Amino acid sequence: MADTSMMDASQPLFEGCTFTIIPTTLTQDRVIEVSQDIEQCGGTVKSFDIDVGRITGLEELDYIVSATTDFPDYYRALDLMIHVVKPAWVEDSLRINKIKNPRTYSPDPVLFLSDVVVCCGDGIPEGDKEAIFGGVLAMGGQYGNQLSKLTTHLIALSMEDPRCEMAVKKRLNIKIVLPHWFNDCLKVGWRVNERPYLLPDPEIMNVEAGAIPPTTASADIKDATNPEPAGPPASPPAYLAQPRAIKAFDGKKVMLGEDLNLNKDLKDVLTGMIKAGGGSMTNSVAQADIYVCNYRKGEEYVKASQANKDVGNLSWLYFLITHDKWTNPMRRMMHYPRPPPPGIGNFQDYKISISSYTGEARVYLENLIKALGAEFTRTFKQDNTHLITAHRNSEKCEAAEEWGVNIVNHLWLEDSYADCKEKSLTSERYTYFPPRMNMGDILGATEINREAVKKMYFAKGRKKEPEAMSNTTAGVSRSHTDGEAQTPLAGKAGRRTKTAGDVATPARSRIDGKENETPGTTGSRGAKDRALSNLHDVMEDANKYQKEAKRKGGVIHGGRRRKEDEIVDKEKRKGGRESTASKRSIDEVEADDASTEEETEETAQKSKKARKGPIAPIKYRMLVSGDKRWQGDGDKESKDKARLREIGLFILDEPKKVDLLCAPKVVRTLKFVAALADGPQLVGSEYLDYAIKHNKLPDAKKYPLDYSDFRKQHGVDLSDAITRAKQNKHRLLKDFTIFCTEKAKFDVYKDIVAANGGKCLKWDNRTTAVTASKRKIESQPKEVSQNLEEDEGDVLYLISELQKTEVKLWTKFRELAKKHDMIPRIVSTEWLLNVAMAQKIHWKPEWELKEEDVSKK
Question: Are 663 and 785 found together in one domain?
Fold first, then answer.
């Protein structure tokens, strides 16, 4: 390969480089256009022989231009260090008269941000910028320090950011998104839809956004939903008989495996269709180009796989016949032979149901569950072990939470199937659901891990049969995956022998001496390396923050967990899990809070079987706060909660859809205050005493919570507050942007603000990164506006502490309010607590913080 690093400026850009263009997903006109662009700049284009269906003289190529990795020579090209790039790479290189980094134009789906060029707004802190840029580079994208016409995404906190204003002024065709978009891409390991994150009105900040939009049918599972299709395949439609198709059977010999169990009539039909496409049949694996079978086992399967022949199942064969073009059988889950029984990992022990998937998506997941070895149930019941859902906004998800059933997205199924081992549910990738997103949008995007399949089923020198290997790994896969620390990207990147990023970049691509130069970037390579090295540290901090945010109970006071909480956790993890949990850090244990509900339901199930009686439907959802009956006694807590669930009372761990709020007295904890926004009925601890003692639910009216002392002290009648909460329906603080300092326990009060429909932002003395606007009370419904009569509409609140270190934060906050023509009001936490507990906006002068009060302290 020619060294063009010292190329003369007058030398044509692609001189000495040889290309071929894969026509699979390109129109004939597009192929001609790209070919002409390459040849006009000195490059040589070897035409792709449609009749052969493969690249001849692959070793002679420098670049392969393709919109997809789904062509027969893709993996061999990577092994030969040949760049595979999208057509846009040619255009963009010509635009700047420099050969751009091929990796950022790879069609490899693992590099899911390869079409993205990111720029950050001025309000994004420098450390966050480096983390974002490093992550974008790692996932195949590009970044620019300056806004340009090539920018596709501008990450900002508000439209008042100077770069957002510039983008609007210049009418740049870019997407302006919140940083949450990038974070969610990283968590899921795929590019998520930008719609919910778009400024100026991102859906994720709208508490009344409505139902999550349904997904459209995924092209990745079309004609790939069932490994054993019923009936013969359809003949290819006439429009497919065009030059761009890579013919599937022309000159190919096909062998049908015995485990397909085809009847003579169907076998004759398939034989006729294959011959009509220019192919022939054979009974010899050695002579075959294509081997079709049902399972990943048997001598013929192993020999065909080791010889790198095309090995697929009947569904894949039907796809080839119907579309008359080649596709990689590992590209789609249901196109590759299934694992032999009993399946993968411990899936044979699982009963799995589905929620929020319809049509082909539902059929695909049903068959994937069965292929893994699990039992699929159409009806979701309490004995289900897992619920696969596209989002958490469904009745099935609510029931799963109440029953302690694992709620996971479909990526858990696909990754387990692809990697030939059960993936651990401790990975956030499988339990996270981006807000306002339907996970069905990325259904079927995962490909079979060819290295994992090779190692498990047909690696040379294997001494054990596939079935034995499967059983062996099933016993150890769980303890192995629990210790995995891979990020979603790292896990997916492991699915290739080599990616475009693994291949050394030939000297010809470094004409300007800056291999990773990107639009508008003036920084050195070292800056990008530092960004990449910082990404791990930043994401580790982010993960710790996420775990801290999920912590349940007692967080109103901040600091470490209470000792008694840790004791309860240890008790709940006894019985098969203690040995694992005892070795994990506090942060890791806190991330597993969901296991408490799992233990509760498990106990309930055992109790149910012992009594052989039905569990009553849930009558009330109760939140308990301030009651210490279970403190330090996890076993008693588990048993009591299980018994209460059996009689129709479900004890919640967090304030969400609360019917009954139980406490010995009025307490101002996060749980209690946030739960008031639901308008629950208030009951005293005596209600629980009766229910546990008599094993039945009493009339809640007989055990009201005594709040007379609270009324005298704070002047708030909670019965009136509950009435107002039902009127407000979580809209009391709608349109409010409330700022809070870290010392004032932002992590706590943001949840109270959110429970009442508002937005709470951490105040870190940056006026350029935030925005605020006046509130229009008349826009609220009448039942809500009557509780907003004392809201002046133009007051901007900062929750702070009466400390000298806090005073320095107040000046810039006042500047922010003035900038937006609003009145600054710096308040103590008492203001928010009283507003949230009274469920109406009101004001007392003693809640305001002033500099002179600090000096008196």
Answer: no
In tens, the pLDDT along 32-52 reads 999 999 999 999 999 887 767
Can you read off the two tokens belonging to residue 349? 């022990």
Q: Tell whether omega for the bond before 342 is within 30 degrees of 0, i.e. cis.
A: yes
5 part of a folded domain? no
Give this prediction's pTM.
0.59
Measured CA to CA, the distance from residue 810 to residue 661 in angstroms comes to: 37
Whole-number Cα distances in Å, 541 to 127, 131, 330, 591: 12, 11, 36, 14
d(CA 549, CA 135): 23
Comparing C-alpha atoms, which of 316, 492, 310 is closest to residue 419?
Answer: 492
Backbone angles phi, psi at 455, to 5 degrees: -65, -40
Average pLDDT over residues 138-161: 91
Question: Which residue, among 172, 175, 176, 183, has the nearest Cα to 139 in the 3D structure?
Answer: 183
> How many C-beta atoms lie closer than 10 Å to residue 57's C-beta?
9
Question: Residue 314 maps to which CATH number?
Answer: 3.40.50.10190
Q: How do residues 636-682 score in pLDDT, each as one tens digit?
A: 888 899 889 889 999 988 898 899 999 999 999 999 999 999 999 99
Instruction: Supply 680's token pair.
Output: 């629950």
The mean pLDDT value for 265-275 works out to 90
User: Which strand ranges, in their side-by-side order, compose the sheet holding 153-155?
Assistant: 142-143, 117-120, 153-155, 175-177
Q: Note the pLDDT of residue 532.
A: 42
Task: For residues 401 and 468, state if they share a domain.
Answer: yes
**What tokens appear for 828 in the block?**
């103590």
CA distance 652 to 654: 6
Which of 788, 592, 748 has the alpha carbon at shortest distance from 668?
748
Cα torsion angle, 420, 66, 175, 523, sign: positive
DSSP 566-606: HHHHHHHTTTTSHHHHTTS-HHHHHTTTTHHHHHHHHHHHH
